[in-house]
Specification:
This protein is α+β, with helices and mostly antiparallel strands. Helices cover 55% and strands 10% of the residues. The protein has helices at 13-35, 50-56, 82-90, 92-95, 113-123, 127-135, 193-202, 219-237, 273-280, 285-289, 292-327, 331-363, 365-370, 388-395, 415-472, 480-483, 488-533; strands at 64-70, 75-80, 103-109, 143-146, 150-160, 245-255, 259-264. A hairpin with a 4-residue loop joins strand 1 (64-70) and strand 2. Residues 212-227 have a biased composition (Basic and acidic residues). Keywords: Cell membrane, Membrane, Transmembrane, Transmembrane helix, Transport.
Length: 534
């Protein structure tokens, strides 16, 4: 007997669509509950928890990863993509260091959750440090945090941009710092302000729409887009005279086993190339010391050197403005100076905490390590993360940097001295800009005073003549000068009046001119006499 076919009546397309929408809504509500970080949420990012994958799993980027193993006698470099690096970190045997390796430097360019999750699990990075990596604001101040297993540094890097319209403060991982879910996440570098403004103006704002249940969308998204729109508009309206500077954080982990992990948001390793080149040379102090803390000091010094280039660019810009102001002051230059002063204030706010970080590493390293230990336990030994050589390099002139800088022709000093020089130069440039603004307004006021002085002089000369001309133009019947068709009487009255009025009002100016000429003649006589006696 043939088997009957069993089948269900096909669903209507509208019914199928309704089922799909309900599934998506349920998934979205679950993701929002897990992903959105609000007040009272669990602090830190634990890579072993599912909530971290839900919240940060959407951060995907093709990273540039380099692993450098070195000692005083050997050095190896390995570059690999994301998948190979994750496989290496998950394999204990493959990721194990060889016996000759003293320091391992894991240099990561780019922000990708799979990469950072693998390296954080492998080296047991603290959840609070990872929380700073993903959720701290892009412009948050530099700092140094001590944890039982490692030292964590967050330092802002200031780089000159290649594009003139690049923003002065790049937004790294826009959306993560505000606690947005991965679907609303975007990794931006902000290289074209006009394009950014155009995209944001034509982009539909999520906060203006409602969900399937009529609930309003989170206003954080609209506030973020509105802020980005305003920033892009200001960059476009500021003109092309703005110095192109990109500010982005660098995260550095110094582990107890001699592993240094550096992470940057840009998907390249161009900035750390000088450090890698020094490690390739066997005679450099960084290579011969085989000290992980000295590698951290070298990275800090590299960031400060990048800040030096920014300061030099601002020096050139302020000199250009100064030359233009001396030739012809204008309101357009005042606008450029105000924009430059605002950028300098923000750069000083982001650069000044680096001095505090260096001071903490130099003076309070062991004290902060001791605060994490149980000193009541017998045999407890306090060992800081910074070696004696590194502390010396942080405060004194370093023989590691006894190579002359090709740009300025002077030997490069240590991190502390560099930062003091950078901050002092920022203050000098800001003061120069303010002086130029004051000079411009003073010149405009002086020119206005000169115009009013000329108008006053014309009024003084012609007002009596106008009064007399009006009187003599009355055409009185008994006035003999009118009847005789002669202007002799008019000038007989006007000239004596002018001879009295003009010297009376212009006398101080004439006196100042005479005194000025006397001083010029006196100076000329003194100069001629000095040449004759010399």
């Amino acid at each position: 007997m043939p088997r009957e076919k069993s089948f269900r009546d096909p669903l209507h397309p509208r019914t199928r669509f309704r089922h799909v929408v309900r599934k998506v809504m349920a998934l979205h509500r679950g993701t929002a509950v897990l992903a959105r970080r609000g007040a009272g949420a669990e602090p830190g990012v634990d890579p072993r928890r599912v909530e971290a994958d839900v919240e940060l799993g959407g951060i995907r980027q093709r990273c540039a990863i380099e692993i450098v193993d070195y000692s005083a006698v050997r050095c190896t470099f390995r570059r690999m993509p994301n998948r190979e690096f994750v496989t290496l970190m998950n394999d204990p045997e493959a990721s194990a260091r060889e016996p000759w390796v003293k320091v391992r430097w894991i240099n990561i360019g780019g922000m990708s959750w799979d990469v950072i999750k693998a390296v954080s699990i492998k080296h047991e990075l603290h959840p609070l440090a990872l929380d700073d990596v993903f959720h701290a604001h892009a412009r948050a101040r530099s700092k140094a945090d001590y944890y039982p297993g490692h030292l964590f540094l967050r330092v802002l890097c200031h780089e000159l941009g290649e594009v003139e319209e690049a923003p002065a403060f790049a937004v790294v991982l826009d959306g993560v710092s505000k606690g947005l879910p991965p679907s609303e996440l975007s990794v931006t570098d902000g290289t074209d302000s006009a394009a950014t403004l155009r995209d944001l103006l034509h982009k539909p704002h999520p906060a203006l729409h409602t969900s399937f249940h009529g609930e309003p969308h989170d206003e954080k998204v609209d506030a973020t887009d509105e802020r980005r729109t305003h920033d892009a508009a200001v960059r476009v309206l500021s003109g092309k005279e703005r110095v192109s500077v990109t500010v982005s954080p660098m995260f550095i982990f110094l582990c107890r086993d001699g592993t240094v992990i550096s992470i940057r948001s840009t998907p390249n390793l161009d900035m750390s190339t000088p450090i890698a080149n020094r490690l390739r040379q066997t005679h450099t102090g960084l290579r011969t010391s085989a000290d992980a803390s000295l590698l951290v000091q070298s990275l800090l010094s590299l960031l400060v050197d990048e800040a030096h280039e920014v300061i030099d660019a601002y020096k050139d810009k302020i000199m250009k403005f100064k030359n233009m102001m001396i030739v012809k002051p204008s309101i357009d230059m005042v606008l450029n100076l105000h924009v430059l002063s605002a950028d300098l204030i923000r750069h000083r706010r982001t650069l000044a905490p680096i001095t505090t970080v260096v001071e903490a590493l130099r003076r309070y390293d062991k004290d902060r390590v001791a605060a994490l230990l149980d000193l009541s336990a017998p045999g407890t030994k306090i060992v800081g993360f910074m070696s004696f050589k590194t502390i010396t390099y942080l405060v004194r002139f370093s023989f590691v940097y006894l190579n002359y800088n090709q740009a300025c022709g002077c030997p490069q000093a240590d991190v502390d001295e560099h930062m003091e020089h950078v901050l002092s130069q920022l203050d000098v440039i800001a003061a120069d800009g303010q002086n130029l603004v004051d000079y411009t307004f003073n010149m405009i006021s002086y020119e206005m005073n000169e115009v009013m002085r000329r108008l006053t002089l014309v009024t003084i000369i012609f007002l009596p003549l106008t009064l007399l001309a009006g009187y003599f133009g009355m055409n009185f019947t008994q006035m003999w000068s009118v009847q005789g068709h002669s202007d002799w009487f008019f000038w007989a009255v006007a000239l004596p009046i002018m001879a009295v009025v003009v010297p009376l009002f212009v006398g101080p100016d004439i006196l100042r001119s005479v005194q000025y000429m006397k001083k010029r003649l006196l100076v000329k006589k003194v100069v001629v006499k000095s040449f004759r006696t010399g």
